[in-house]
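Course exercise 7: structure representation. Students receive a sequence record and must write out the corresponding structure in token form. The form below is the worked example handed out in class, using RCG64475 (18 residues). Read each field label carefully; the graders check that inputs and outputs are placed in the correct fields and that the protein name is recorded exactly as given.

STUDENT ID: A-19
EXERCISE PROTEIN: RCG64475
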Amino acid sequence: NNKLTFGKGTTLSVIPGT
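STUDENT ANSWER:
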């Protein structure tokens, strides 16, 4: 599954998982 994390401000980090 893919994790979608929102950081401070408008930072969008997409972390691909297995």
